[in-house]
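Narrative of activities, Objective 1.

The group set out to show that a structural description can be obtained from nothing but a protein's sequence at a throughput compatible with the screening campaign. Below is one input-output pair from the validation batch, recorded exactly as produced.
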Amino acid sequence: MTDAAAPTARLLVAGVGNIFLADDAFGPEVLRALQDRPLPPAVRARDFGIRGLDLAYELLTGYDTAVLVDAAPRGHRPGTLSVIEPDLPDGADCAPPEAHGMDPAKVLALAARLGDGPLPRVLVLACEPETVPRGDEDIMPGLSAPVRAAVDHAVTALHAMVPVLLADPAATPPLRRPDESAAPHTAALPHLAARAPQDR
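Output recorded for this entry:
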């Protein structure tokens, strides 16, 4: 007599960022690279770009864990990868995300407000950008060299993280980057309040 297979956790891997704003395109580029190295069938991998509303509603569809792939300045060397677990908002006071914008904090707050139950566990696979236009700067398509190099590292990191999270959504996923050692600045991720950051 064989044991029944354990149910598989539902996992979302979401690329976020603007493909026209230099290194902010990191998330979409990682999702594009995953097309050549797909994740297991139990994982939904999707590029949300700057569609914050779409991501907020997607987070309410029953996932155990969501991994957002994003560029986030945290005070590391450009191209450094970090795993961050942000504090999830309660949704009581939230401004809706822009229809064509992607502020992860606003997206999570909106999802918390719209949902009837708790949000999935959210992790951020963040990459330290080198070039991100600000204010009224012109469109700057294309990743900087260190962030471009980090795309393949991020795909490898996701392939290491996903089996761990599928087996146990509460587990601490591995992230191995031997060249990363700089400590983050305490206020380096203004749009997400980091909880128990894991920088490797």
